[in-house]
Structures are given as structure tokens and as C-alpha cells.
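Posting for a labmate who doesn't have an account.
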Amino acid sequence: MKIVLLPLDERPCNSYYPSILPTDKEVNIVVAPSSLLSKQKKICDVSKLHGWLLKECKDADYAIISMDMLCYGGLIPSRIHHESYEAIIKRSDIVREIKKENPKIKIYANELIMRCPCYSLSVEEPDYYDECGKELFMYGWYLDRQNLGLLTEEEKALMIENRAKIKDEYLNDLLNRRRINKQVVMYNLSLFKDGVVDFFSIPQDDCAPYGLSVMDVRDIKAYMVEEGIEGVMMYPGADEVGLDLISRAINDFKGVSPKVYVSYATPAGQTKIPELEDRPINITIPLHMRVAGCTLVDTLEEANILYIVNCGDAFLATANPNKSLSLKDRENDRIIAEIKKANSLGIKVAIADNFYTNEGDFTLLNLLQSNDCLALLNSYSGWNTSSNTLGTATAAAVCSFHYHDEAKEKYFLFYRLVEDLIYMGKTRRELIDYIAKKDQSVTTMNDMGTFEDEYASLVHDSLRFHIKEYGLDEIYSYKDVKVSFPWHRTFEIFLEVI
């Protein structure tokens, strides 16, 4: 089975994680080479990318295509471009050509709803986000609530005050781009309606219950109803979409929909909304499972995969000092009992560590280690948003269910534990503190300047120390790690395990 993947962008989460999934030689995942992809805000050479895609898809069984990369030349370029609607949609015609040359290929397309983050930072947005990113988010929040008739008197005054902080040119630029991008999504849905694309998913990146993004969602849903388009999936997510769709392709090829039993570490947590999302997690998880081609079941005994969602009675920001309050109702004994029972029944065990945004939970690691359960896991993920975690944990579990490659499975597990727990939970904080002591005019946590090699060395040494501290070297075989910074910032690393 050959799966061609055109990823959302060039970061490891989109372009490297798929290549290290625990599959076997039956699966050939061909990822677009980094030389053809975008470089953060720099658009890729779209014509060369199209040529590569046409060539690789001629003998492929599946193609997973990011329409953001295909049409805009990258994820970040989709948020900062000044191109016309006509120029953008012309690029999606290549999908029809792919299907024409290989009618048997199954094409899974994905396209994001353009995000509107709730903070002022321009690393992934137009430059003016440094000045008024939070205000632009709040503009959408108040506008949406006003349109829905929900705006309070207090909010009306805040809306006026907030709007005064945004320059007209910035707001007009943002709204015009959002209008074009929404129209492009609607146009590309014709590929699904016409049967060229076999499955179409529309993740909502960094979404919220109100705002510009969810307003676009409603418009697109209304358009689909008007056009009679059914079966398109819309849900919170972004960087996990390639992994979700690889799961779907493998399950489709095998003709099997793995049965998944979802267990919430704290039952009350299932009705809570994770940070950067717009709905409770117990509504989001079934959507991700449908995208991945899995089936939810009601009991552990009938499952192929035990899927533990590590949550408290709330979802917390990174290193929240009140974490103990959210942990008080976590059913630790039940979690351990379920893991051991699943293992005895030959059921795969996956943990989606959603307790924090942007890092894994060390209290969970300690719980697993003290009960001799860490080595019983087949899949783990705990990085970035809740949905990023969900899709990553699902993909590894699906591959483990189908292929049973213990060496690859351990590699993927070790990789995730090191990156999600150790780097994001400890080493990154050490690195940020180290950078803070330097001259902020020449290096910062979001722009490392000429200090990258120094920081990579610091991270390398820290990772090795903590790997040994937590005994991961005794469970997983590794000799060393290499570290680099794809976007020249502390937020993510490219980790190579030797």
C-alpha cells in the first residue's frame, strides 16, 4: 500500500511523525520532501510541488492532500497571503488531474478554517498581530455574540473600546483574507461533491466558542446544506490531520474499523471544553474517531483499543499552579486496573494525555511507573492542543493494532515521551529561563538568532539527564538524541533518536 502525503507544513509534527508510525513493510508512506515545502512564512514553489504530487500519485493507493499547502504554498502563507481568489483556486485543479491519471486512487483532502488566535504574536500571523492580535480575536468574539443576540450591555462598551485599538487597515486586511479563504474552502468542496476527493475534512485550528473562525464554520455549513454536500467532517484540530487520515487509509485498506473504548480518567472532564477548542471533548473525540475510520464501543471487553483520556475535572494551561484541584477526582486505581486488564486480554492501550495544553503530565508518568504500567502502553501522546494529542495517539494505536511491530512501536513511544513530557514539561522551561538571561535584543524564545547551536547543546544534555532520571533508558533502547529547531524558536524541536 502506497500512501502519498502532502503535509500541512514542514514542521516535524506534519512531515516527520507520519514517517515513524509503527507500521511494517506493507505500508509505504511517501511524504513530500522538505525541499519542496514551505519554510514558515516563505511560500513553497507550488509548480514544483504539483509536479512531485502528480508523479508520486500515479501508482499510489491513497493520497492525503493538504489543500492549504496545495493552494497557498503552506500553512502560514495561507494566513498572510495577498493573492486573488482566482489565482488560488486554479491550483486545486491538480487534484482532478491526479484522479484522471489514476482513477483507482483514493484521495483524502483536508483544509483548515483560518484561525484567529487569542494572543498578540506575529510568529505565525501577519506582522500586525504583535500589536493587536488579542484585540482582533476579541473583535470577532464580540461581533459574533452581537450577531447572535447574546451581547451584554457590559460587552457592548467593551466592544467599542476594543475596536478603537485596531487600525482600520489591519482589520480590513484580515477580514478580506478570511473572506477569500472561506470562498476557497467552498470552491474546493466541489472536488468532494464531484467524487474526485473521496473524503474531505475541515479542521478548525485554535478555535473558540465565538469569533471569526466559528462564523466561517457556520457559513460553510450553510453552503454545504444549500449544495447538498454531506459527509464532510468539521471538527477542532489541525496538526494531527495527516495522522488521522493515515489511520483512515490503513483501516480502509485493511477493511477493518478498530473498535475503541474511550475511558476518561476523570469522568467529569469529558463534558469540559479544552483550551483553544469550541466544544466539550466528548463531542470532539467521536468526530476524530470517525475521521480515523475507527468505531467507538461501550465496553472494554468488546474493544481492540483502550483509549484513556488523561483529564482532570478541567483542562489546564501549561504548568497551571492549581493542577492539584483538577486532579482530586481522577480515578487512578481504575486507570491502572483498565490498563492491566486490557493487556491481559490482548487489547492495545493508548493514552491521550490531554491534562495540559502544550505538554504531558508527570503525575501520570509517575502513576504508570509506580504501578509497572509504562511498558504496557502501545501508544502515547501529550503535545500541544487536545486534538493534536487525540489524532497522534489514535494513529499510533491503529498502527499497533494492525502491524504489531514492537521495535517501531517502542521507538514512537519513546519519541513521544521524550518530546511531550521531558522536552515540553522540563527542558523547554529550562531553555526559556536560560534565554531570558541573555540580551533580548539579539535572542528570544521566538527568535534564537545566532545561538541555536548553543541552545541545541543545552537541550541535548538536558534531555539525556531527564531520560535517565525517569528511567526511560531502562525501558526503551536508545543511544543518543539529536536536536534542532525547525522554526528557530523554543516551541517545537526536531528530535532524532539514535
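Reply:
Got it, the C-alpha cells are right above this. The first helix runs from residue 12 to 15.
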